[in-house]
Design a protein that fits this description.
The protein is an alpha+beta fold and 327 residues long. It is elongated.
Length: 327
Amino acid sequence: MSERESWEKELEALGRDSAAEGAQPVEIAAGETETGAEQSFAEEAEERARAAERDFERRLEKAIDRRIRNICLKTFAVAAAVCMVVFLIVSPAVGVFFPTPQHVGGMGSASLEEYLGAYYETTRPYVELVPANDQQRRAWTQNRGFGCYTVGLNVLDGKQYWARTGESNVQVTLDRGRFAVKNDPERVLVRGWNAFNYRDSVEGVRADLEGLPRTSYGYISVRANAPVSIETLRESGLDVNWIEVYSDVESVADQAFRWRGWYAFSGDAVKEAIRANCDAVAAQTGPLLTERYCVSGSRDALLAYLDTADIRCVGIDNVHIHYVENH
């Protein structure tokens, strides 16, 4: 039986009940005149008709409410069933075809954290990605469904005087294989690749350093005129924070920026960039050489290095100023 037929039959039943109640006989009391009895009968009949009408309206209202409630319950049940199918069946099925934060593919099915650590620590000076424990990883990873994830990372900036560990300070997204930085308030993952090309002259940096207190500790990025060995840098008394061993850093930089706009983990650009770094190191015979590097040290140690090194361009990345009180 259709919904319409059921509703019509219910209305007919209500009408019959109301008509039966309104048609009940009226008794004539003894001693009443025929005219008075007719008048009393008419009044009682009218009252019964009004009562029957009110009862019909009440029953009709209840029937309508019941029907609306049933429709709402059915609609809710259908919507709930659709949502359950979408999120419990469709969403996981879609997610199977895309990388997850636990397995991004390539590099022996490394996790997103391992992949980004290898990439950023290789291509970004001063950056260090601190591995999260299992509890932190579960708390920092949000599965948004349909192959989309938001992942928190603990990334340190090595040129800062202090660092927060054990908490997420960078958020990245992995949406159906597409990687992007969502929130990086401290800009620890941002560094222009022109940092080694368009920097200050040695004389300008020397003048800036000489204007600092002797207790200052500075970080500089250097591009040398010729490759220098890591041992030479270490023997200078400076701390070696980062070295670059790519043969074509501009090409790798271009890959890095394009990585944010295409399916990184379905291609091999980033993996090849990291492998190129390893191959370049392995191919070198004798001491490890580099032309672009980041070093840090006291003000006087940096000034001494600028006086002896063969530098094309240099820039100051950060300075920590320590004041000593005179007693």
